[in-house]
Amino acid sequence: MKTRSRGYHHRITTRSQMGMNVAHHRDVNALVRQNTRLAKRLVAGRVAAHALCGLRDLTVSFGISIALGDLLYLHDKWYVTHSGLLRLAYRTHCSSIRVEQVREYCNPSVSRWVFKATVYKSPRSKGFVGYGDADPSNVSAMVRGAEMRVAETRAVNRALRKAYGIGVCSVEELGYLSSPPEGKGSDSNHSNGNGSATGQPRLRDKLCLLIRKYELDSTLVKRYAADFCGTEALRDASRDLVEAFISTLTEEAAKDRAALICKLNSYNQLEEVKS
């Protein structure tokens, strides 16, 4: 009887595990379909075939979600975001992240900072190390004075990418996206971020009208916008990125307001987790 009882228990356990595996497989497939659909919508169907294959691999391997802002598509390539890496670490129960200044390479007088980050996936892990640097020459003029935080973010991103084997670069590490715009007209272009002194429609007004029309939470919309644009705040984003966000938000609200509300609420949950 003992042997039969053990065999019966073993069969139940095996069936339970099989059921969990099937459920997980279904969840992954659903996320793949959602990411593919959002990717085609966000860039108006201009996603290259190789990029869709890469998106599927990232989704299956890491559970990355475009809807949550884990990825950005720039110049026919995918870039993971800082928030996406932190969500991955949270899902996989990362043990700890240690960050420290590399003092011999820091120079506060010229706003140059270098940080070392070490990610411990488990309490007994040896740790995965990444370095990040920032100074006025490789950060946007919009975040001048925040070089220390940028350097810390870059270090953490590199360490997390090493720890989890993510080969794609993070958007925060891109120097050419962070560098100040060239040319004399850069100041006037920056002044058009939320509006225009030359008669162009004010993007802030467009966004406010959209929020009122669909009765959206303005705070959550701003968080979604900052995540979409890859900046700490909406005011730091370029006019082109803000226009792209407003266009995307308009389409999402018109097509399925309930789904949009659900997406916005996820940003509130993330904020509660951080606090």
How would you sum up this structure, described in words?
- The protein is mainly α and 275 residues long.
- It has three domains: 16-68; 81-181, Double Stranded RNA Binding Domain (2-Layer Sandwich); 201-274, no CATH class.
- The protein is 55% helix and 11% strand.
- The strands form two sheets. It has a three-stranded antiparallel β-sheet with strand order 3-4-5. A two-stranded antiparallel sheet has the order 1-2.
- α1 (2-42) runs antiparallel to α2 and α7 (203-214) packs parallel to α9.
- It is globular, with a radius of gyration of 22 Å.
- It starts with a helix and ends with a helix.
Number of strands: 5
Low-confidence stretches: 1-20, 178-193, 195-201
Rg for CA atoms:
22 Å
Name the beta content range. Answer: 5-15%
Global mean pLDDT: 78
Biggest β-sheet description: 3 strands, antiparallel
What count of domains describes the coordinates? 3
- CATH topology of the largest domain, anyone? Double Stranded RNA Binding Domain
- What sort of overall outline do the alpha carbons produce when their principal axes are compared? globular
Helix percent band: 40-55%
- Encode the helix/strand succession as letters: HHEEHEEEHHHHHHH
Q: Output the structural class.
A: mainly alpha
CATH class of the largest domain: Alpha Beta
Q: Figure out the total of helices.
A: 10
Alpha-carbon distance between the termini?
Answer: 54 Å
Largest sheet: spatial strand order: 3-4-5
Name given to the CATH architecture of the largest domain: 2-Layer Sandwich
Classify the oligomer.
single chain
